[in-house]
Design a protein that fits this description.
149 residues; mainly alpha; 5 helices; 68% helix; 4% strand
């Protein structure tokens, strides 16, 4: 990379954290579901305590799982603009556009993990939009204009 400083180890560490950031949209979807449960369905704190751990398990589990899998498979490296999954990797194709097999081991398991993650990101963005739209729609329905005599 132009004007880059560091080593292959720092690039791999950077790629690990870039991959780990897929947690953000999944957490946003969890938060939007929380809004629906509290604002629209009227869930109280006691009900939420039973499922609160799920709001953390899915985002952290999926993002950390794929980040660790990428590190174990040694697929991180220079991705032209930053460090991420190396170009030409089937794993990068699962997220982006290029396709060329380089690694042969653990392919089916990790490819499934990446494809599931890609689908989870699409589902999380869609559910985020739908949940927030649902909450806003219901709040707007509760707003009754004041008529002054």
């Amino acid at each position: 990379m132009y004007l880059a400083s560091g080593t292959e180890a720092t690039c791999n560490a950077h790629a690990f954290f870039v991959q780990w950031t897929i947690m953000t949209p999944i957490y946003n979807a969890s938060l939007s579901l929380y809004y629906v449960l509290v604002v629209k369905l009227g869930w109280n704190e006691r009900k939420l305590q039973n499922i609160r751990w799920l709001f953390h398990l899915f985002p952290v589990g999926i993002s950390l799982g794929t980040a660790i899998a990428g590190a174990l498979l040694d697929i991180y490296g220079n991705a032209t603009l930053w460090c991420w999954i190396i170009p030409g990797s089937v794993y990068r194709w699962a997220f982006y556009v290029s396709f060329k097999r380089k690694k042969k081991y653990f392919d089916s398991v990790i490819l499934c993990l990446y494809i599931i993650t890609c689908r989870v990101l699409i589902i999380s963005h869609t559910s985020l939009f739908c949940c927030i739209l649902y909450v806003v729609w219901n709040i707007m329905g509760m707003c009754i204009p004041c008529h002054h005599p």
